[in-house]
Amino acid sequence: MTDLNPLLARYRRDRDRCARTAQHNLDAVAHYDREIARLEEDPSATPAEPTTNRDTMAAALRELQTRRSAAFTAGSGLGLTSKDGQALIAEATTADDIDLLNDALGMLDEFSRNVADLRTTVWREFAKGQRCSVCGMTSKQAAAANYDCAQEC
């Protein structure tokens, strides 16, 4: 069914997103209920790994951020170039961290994934010098606006 009213369409998308989040939480609750019942029945049983929830993921991401910041800070005052300082951050990031980030991305709803992907893509344009670091325009956009970033920014 196609909505002619964009507001209703947005509300339906938001409701569906909330339903997916609620289902994820219900699945986690069911997992813990099964484990509690199993462990109460047999206290010597080995507990199953907990399911990953947003709180667990948030803690793991905070730890990763702290570790990456600490690696950068460790290089402060050593006379390193900014490129070498950035390399310290990369060295502190493991393949397991990449898996963690991919798992975290999988926990996001469609809206959040789109924002994260677009932000990363646009940020790369700044990092590669494809956009002015002050006004954010590309050289073609600046030319179309008759604007000289080198002089006016």
List keywords for this structure.
153 residues, mainly alpha, 7 helices, flat
Question: How would you summarize what this structure contains?
Answer:
The protein is 71% helix and 0% strand. It is an all-alpha fold. The longest helix has 36 residues, at 6-41.
Secondary-structure topology with pairs:
Layout: H1 6-41, H2 54-74, H3 82-91, H4 95-107, H5 110-127, H6 139-144, H7 149-152
Helix pairs in contact: 2-3, 2-4
Series of secondary-structure elements, N-terminal to C-terminal: HHHHHHH
* Proportion in helices: over 70%
Structural class: mainly alpha
Poorly predicted ranges: none
Strand content: under 5%
Q: N-to-C terminal Cα separation, in Å?
A: 49 Å
Radius of gyration: 23 Å
Question: What is the overall silhouette?
Answer: flat
Strand element count: 0
The largest sheet is:
none
Number of helices: 7
Average predicted confidence as pLDDT: 84
Overview of the structural elements:
- This protein is mainly α and 153 residues long.
- It is built from seven helices and no strands.
- The protein has helices spanning 6-41, 54-74, 82-91, 95-107, 110-127, 139-144, 149-152.
- The mean pLDDT is 84.
